[in-house]
Amino acid sequence: MLATILWFILVGAVIGAVARLIVPGRNPIGILLTVLVGIAGALLGGVVADALGAGTLVALVFAVIIAALGVAALTAFQARGGGGRGWRRTGRGTY
User: Fold this and answer.
1) H-state helical runs in the chain
2) Closest C-alpha to 31, from 41, 40, 42, 19
3) Backbone phi, psi, residue 73, to 5°
4) Which of 11, 24, 54, 79 has its CA at a distance of 20 to 30 angstroms from the CA of residue 90?
5) What is the pLDDT of residue 51?
6) Could you tell me if 74 and 83 are in contact, meaning their C-beta atoms sit under 8 angstroms apart?
């Protein structure tokens, strides 16, 4: 069980790092956050697949898919301006 969890952490870290490398240009989130989201997604995917009684290969594929979707969603959310720090001027004279 511990080996499986460590495997999912490794897979999530790799997914986060690869996602960071394949997105061109300036990224709105840091590499540490990208890797952490990849790890969280892989762990979540692995736990859900295990709860459904899937085999090891299916759990690994599910973990990769959830990790990639999590990193993509966070990147898209941050690129749109969500989750910013503090108030931002809208250009209409209001905050």
Assistant:
1) 2-22, 31-51, 56-79
2) 19
3) -65, -45
4) 24
5) 85
6) no
Tokens matching residue 36: 């952490």
Question: Alpha-carbon distance 47 to 80, whole Å?
Answer: 30
Residues 6+ apart with CB under 8 A from 69: 41
DSSP annotation of 36: H
pTM: 0.70
Distance CA(30)–CA(79), nearest Å, equals 12
3-state secondary structure of 4: helix
Per-residue confidence (pLDDT) for residue 25, from 0 to 100: 67
Site of tokens 């905050």: 95
Q: Are 46 and 12 in contact (CB under 8 A)?
A: no
